[in-house]
Design goal:
The protein is mainly alpha-helical. Helices cover about 80% and strands about 0% of the residues.
């Protein structure tokens, strides 16, 4: 029977061999969060600051935003692996900070949900104080520098030739 250490080493070997696919999938999933952050700014934050939202999404568009928001779970896992892998190769404060930014999203996802944010700003009877809505929003936007860095890493992998032909080789 293989040890956990051997399985872990096999996983990281596989991850390195398929880095171009892994970073592309992670970056793509993470880019979807820009749709969510745009909605958050144009509907929720704008309404709180200026009284009326720039847009109000309902029906199928609201369902789309919810589905996009759920892609955050695999995005957080995939992008966290990028920075854990980076830390495996050597310590970096940036990787630690970005892992903190990324994984603070779990707090946002499971404790301070968007429903709470909308409810707090919309005046619905929410048990938690409204200032926590701003904390939730700050947590949500903490992923922006990580999104940018993830795309930089993906483009660097492309320049190095690590991304060329990934569809043919990795899929």
């Amino acid at each position: 029977m293989r040890t956990l250490k051997a399985l872990w080493a096999d996983f990281w070997d596989w991850y390195q061999q398929h880095y171009r696919l892994n970073i592309t999938v992670a970056a793509t999933l993470f880019a979807l969060q820009l749709v969510h952050l745009t909605w958050l700014l144009s509907e929720v934050i704008w309404a709180r600051l200026f009284g009326d939202p720039l847009v109000h999404l309902g029906g199928i568009f609201r369902v789309f935003i919810v589905l996009v928001d759920y892609t955050e779970v695999p995005a957080l896992i995939g992008v966290s692996l990028i920075y854990v892998n980076e830390l495996r190769q050597g310590f970096s404060w940036k990787a630690v900070l970005f892992l903190f930014f990324l994984n603070s999203q779990w707090l946002h996802l499971f404790w301070i949900t968007d429903e709470f944010v909308v409810g707090a700003f919309g005046g619905a009877g929410v048990a938690l104080p409204a200032w926590l809505a701003w904390v939730a929003i700050l947590i949500d936007y903490a992923e922006v520098p990580v999104i940018i860095d993830t795309f930089r890493k993906m483009l660097a992998a492309r320049r190095e030739g690590r991304l060329a032909g990934f569809m043919r080789d990795d899929l």
